Amino acid sequence: MIKIAIIIGSTRPGRKAEAVAKWVYEIAQKRSDAEFELVDIKDFNLPLLDEPLPPTLGQYTHQHTKAWSAKIASFDAYVFVTPEYNHGTSGALKNAIDFLYHEWVNKAAGFVGYGGATGENLRLVMGELQVADVKAQVGLSLFTDFENFSVFKPAPQHEKSVTSMLDQVIAWGGALKTLREKQA
Ligand SMILES: Cc1cc2nc3c(=O)[nH]c(=O)nc-3n(C[C@H](O)[C@H](O)[C@H](O)COP(=O)(O)O)c2cc1C
Predict the structure, then answer these.
(1) Mean of the per-residue pLDDT values for the chain?
(2) Contact 20/75 with Cβ under 8 angstroms?
(3) Is the Cα dihedral 178, 180, 183, 184 positive or negative?
(4) How far is the CA of 174 from the centre of ligand 1 (A)?
């Protein structure tokens, strides 16, 4: 069974990311074809990238990098829960992604975004990291899925979108796990 991280992509006090990620996790828990874990980048206290060598070398000097590396390496696929900050993802999530390299390679990913053009710019980043990002995507609106732009009340149809996205992440995540095992 493959292991999938649902990554909380904002560290902002009062963030919406946590409620969205927990909703995704609850939907995911209804299925038995993968194992899911909520991963909060906030828990890793990552500073702005402070490793002297490029992550492609995997020679980490800091304990926070080693802990983040071990956590991310333990999964076969990822669901990134991402806000939209100036039509991009959050700096916190991009920074956390940039800390590592091989931990991401030949894994699968899906996106759950809230805002306007969420997730799209992360696809460029995934390409560089050799992550297979799936087509099915969950797009939540700050206008219609959050009461008064703050309390998360997702429209019912989004559960189906989460399921479609997870179906693809699990299929690709499983195929890439087989590939990595063959390469090992
Ligand atoms: C720096 C910044 C930039 C933002 N840019 C956008 C944007 O381009 N489009 C948009 O729809 N919302 C934008 N927003 C609104 C965020 O989507 C909204 O604040 C959301 O709650 C942020 O996610 P978070 O609460 O999980 O951190 C921006 C918010 C911040 C803090």
Answers:
(1) 96
(2) no
(3) negative
(4) 33
